[in-house]
Amino acid sequence: MARFEDSFWGVDPINFTGFENLCEIMKNGKRTCDDLQAFMKARIQIEDTYAKSLLRLAKISCAAAPTGTLHEAWRQMRAETERIAANHARLATELEAHVEGPVKQFRERQRDQRKKIEETVRRAQKYKVSSFEKNTKCRKTYDQRCRESEKVKEELKACGQSQPSKELDKIRARVLKAEQAVDQANTQYQEAITQLEDSRIQWEREMERCGSVFQLMEEERLIYLRNVMWLATNIFASACVTDDEAFETMRVQLEHVSVEADIAEYIREKRTGSQRPARIEFIKYVGDSQH
Questions:
Q1: Structure confidence by residue, pLDDT tens digits, 177-222
Q2: pLDDT category of residue 61 using cuts at 50, 70 and 90
Q3: Burial of 26 per CB tally in 10 Å (0-12, 13-18, 19+)
Q4: What is the pTM of this model?
Q5: Alpha carbons 218 and 173: distance in angstroms, whole number
Q6: What is the C-alpha to C-alpha distance for residues 291 and 270, in angstroms, rounded to an integer?
């Protein structure tokens, strides 16, 4: 299996692109956690709103006839709508408790862990850069002192015995001073090399640790998010099963609707009789004197 700790190096001693790429991988992982949490939070709000809307809908007064098989189907539909509302309220609660909340906690835990590692490596980088710059400066000084020493020695050699003794003593003093300056620069340069090597060893140690820890974190994140999305899918599927059970109950009740029975029941409860009004005949007017 490919390993982070073997894959993000470079030959340039103060080029840290590999580390920045590692950090980018981890930041992308954090963004994925952010997106998943935001997605689940929005889904929870949708489910909660949907559940409340369904519940209000189910509470609407029944305007249908109070009896009959169709009325029973209508009553069952409203009851099952309440059941579906409760199911989606439960779905919202489960998503919050088992998905959205845990993803947030996981993201924050990894964020804190990542920051500690990053800070340690950046301190090692800073130490390495300062050591490299010091080494470069000390080397330049050492080279300069060596050139100065060579120059004054050549000057002494060129003078030979032709110069007055006093003048030769001055040049010899300059040679001695130049050699002392070389020794001092050499010591500082050696110390800078030692410090640079110490910074390199420390930086490599922290980079190896960073690569190892970041890979474990990334593997953990991939496995965790896969599992939590699987869990969310199962919660969605469970809600669908419960919804379908409610719909099946409605279907079964609707199968029991009988037009004939409802007509007969309505007649039984509301009938006023089968005898129709008699025909009203024409009555001829007769005067009052006929009475």
A1: 999 999 999 999 999 999 999 999 999 999 999 999 999 999 999 9
A2: low
A3: buried
A4: 0.81
A5: 66
A6: 44
Contact between residue 135 and residue 190 where contact means Cβ atoms under 8 Å apart: no
- Look at residue 172 and give its three-state secondary structure: helix
d(C-alpha 67, C-alpha 73), whole Å: 10
Q: CA 51 from chain center: how many Å?
A: 27
Is 134 a residue whose pLDDT tops 70? Answer: yes
State how far the Cα of 12 lies from the Cα of 22, in Å rounded to an integer: 17
Please state, as a whole number, how many other Cβ atoms lie within 10 Å of the Cβ of residue 194. 12
Cα(15)–Cα(149) distance, integer angstroms: 35
Q: What span, in angstroms and rounded, lies between the C-alpha atoms of 279 and 43?
A: 70
Cα(269)–Cα(66) distance, integer angstroms: 11
Q: Tokens 């620069």 correspond to what residue? A: 185
Q: Predicted confidence band at 286 (pLDDT cuts at 50, 70, 90)?
A: confident
Look up residue 122 and give its two tokens.
């950046």
Q: Pick from 246, 239, 240: which is nearest to 91 by CA?
A: 239
Closest CA to 92 of 14, 168, 144, 40: 40
What own/partner pairs with CB < 8 Å and gap ≥ 24 does 249-255 have?
249/76, 249/80, 250/73, 250/76, 250/77, 250/80, 253/72, 253/73, 253/76, 253/77, 254/73
Longest dimension (CA), the chain: 187
**Tokens linked to 95:** 């998503």
Positive or negative torsion for Cα 154, 159, 160, 165: negative
